Amino acid sequence: MSTALASVPKYKLNNGRDIPAIALGTFLGFDERGMAKSQNKQLRDVILGAIDVGYRHFDTASVYETEGEIGEAVRMKIEEGVVRREDVFITTKLWNTQHKREQVVKALNESLQKMGLNYVDLYLMHWPIGLNEDYSHSEVDYMETWRGLENAQRLGLAKSIGVSNFNKEQLQRVIEKGNIKPVVIEIEIHPQIIQKELVDYAQAQGVVVMGFSPFGSLVMRYGMHFPGPKLDNPLLLEIANKYGKTTPQVVLRWLVDRNVIPIPKTLKYKRLKENINIFDFELTSEEIEKINEFDTKTRYTLPSFWQTHPYYPFDRIDNPIADPFVKN
């Protein structure tokens, strides 16, 4: 069957299903035209390479417009006999403009059609924020949206359901008011925003945490360097040299050692191999604590253009940025 180079452990979800301990992110960011798109099947080819080196978990969302190429790559590898469908874990997300209960199943069916698959392993509510088609604020309560996700699970279109970009109070409300408990919360986690309170709460409730943007300031964002630890940070270098690893591998392992599923993303084959080769060493509790000290509560995903929405999950700022989803 599989000839993967890396063997990835799994966590048990609160519904008894398994989830691989690392995922490949597939958000390509924004360019001058809006949401960046894969050119010449580049992302599909990355997924093909990722499956070969051992990735079995792929994280996407309807708004990323990458579902089609992920589905194509997975189907190709199934046809080659490299994997079976049940070997691959696919996470996708419901976008904010489809938050009415009756829209959820329709939205997931559209995602499945793009992927050419019969089900996803995990369906997340991308944000607690409901929006109308013109991106004006909708008053739809995310609990109504959650009922729609519950319907999708009951229909077998999603094996598991969860939330993304929720704060602690919002997660708590879904846990207490929902009929099906979320299995996962996906949030931004890196050394500059360690999210200890939310991670501790979720894990105490049996909710697995997935962390996006795991490298924080180690990598360039929006074409520039931001303040914070870099690849040559002395502490990270010292730890990396001790284990014969790179500083990005140390940061990914820091997440794994906190029982958080990291979601690194790359289009480079060399980095694909590097990022998954993190399951043969462990950090000490002292090393984890030292990395925790980089925490400055810095978010790189901060949609302040939504901050007047009643369900905006983060603190408000003085100068919100322009909404990239609204075409001028």
Q: What is the H/E string? A: EEEEEHEHEHEHEHEHEHHEHH
Helix content: 25-40%
Our count of helices gives 10
Strand order in the sheet with the most strands: 3-6-7-8-9-10-11-12
Number of strands: 12
From the helix content, strand content and strand pairing, which structural class follows? alpha/beta
Low-confidence stretches: none
* Overall pLDDT confidence: 94
The span between the termini is 51 Å
Largest sheet: 8 strands, parallel
Beta fraction? 5-15%
How much is the radius of gyration in Å?
19 Å
- Name the overall outline: globular
What this model shows, in words?
By secondary structure, this protein is of the alpha/beta class. The protein has ten helices and twelve strands. An eight-stranded parallel beta sheet has the order 3-6-7-8-9-10-11-12. The chain has a two-stranded antiparallel ribbon with strand order 1-2. Helix 2 packs across helix 3 and helix 3 packs across helix 4. The radius of gyration is 19 Å and the shape is globular. The mean pLDDT is 94. This is Aldo-keto reductase AKR2E4-like isoform X2. Pfam families: Aldo_ket_red (PF00248). One of its GO terms (molecular function) is oxidoreductase activity, acting on the CH-OH group of donors, NAD or NADP as acceptor.
